[in-house]
Amino acid sequence: MASPRDRTPMNLLPCSLASSILEGDLEQAALQQTLDKLIVMETPEGFYVIARFLWAKGKDWYLTTRRNRTEPRLYKDLIRLNKNMKEIFPIIGFELLRNQQMPPAEVEEPAPALAPKPEKAKKPTKRTPKK
């Protein structure tokens, strides 16, 4: 693999629930002919798939698993990935980009810290002297 400085970075958005798609949904999009392009990204960890649709120009959708929608589905072997793509999308090719990186982790907004409520001043209690 190439060294990290030799990589050609793409401006990738974080993988999140809003930018992920499941394999079954991707297959439906291919059947409905709304799939524009499939891009396979090669990283040191393996390969992952980005889908682009005709109706969502400029937005990338990551192929994910149902269990983890915040990380792209990672294939360790290009041959296995190609075989899987041929079964699902027999007439759709894909573009392979080498020396890429994983998409950035989704930045979670920190929960707003709740300021402690100011305590009310206690009223002096009336004490009756003991006899």
Question: What are the defining features of this structure?
Answer:
131 residues, single chain, Signal recognition particle alu RNA binding heterodimer, srp9/1, alpha/beta
Secondary structure topology:
Blueprint: E1 20-21, H1 23-31, E2 35-42, E3 47-53, E4 61-63, H2 78-88, E5 95-97
Parallel strand pairs: 1-4, 2-5
Antiparallel strand pairs: 2-3, 3-4
Brief sketch in words of this structure:
By secondary structure, the protein is α/β, with parallel strands linked by helices. It has helices at residues 23-31, 78-88, and strands spanning 20-21, 35-42, 47-53, 61-63, 95-97.
Task: Walk me through what this model shows.
The protein is of the alpha/beta class and 131 residues long. The protein has a domain at 14-97: 2-Layer Sandwich (Signal recognition particle alu RNA binding heterodimer, srp9/1). Helix content is 15%, strand content 18%. The chain is built from two helices and five strands; from the N terminus they run βαβββαβ. Strands 1-4-3-2-5 form a five-stranded mixed beta sheet. A hairpin with a 4-residue loop joins strand 2 (35-42) and strand 3 (47-53). The longest helix is centred in the middle third of the chain and has 11 residues, at 78-88. The radius of gyration is 26 Å and the shape is elongated. The relative contact order is 0.23. Mean pLDDT is 82; it is low at 1-8.
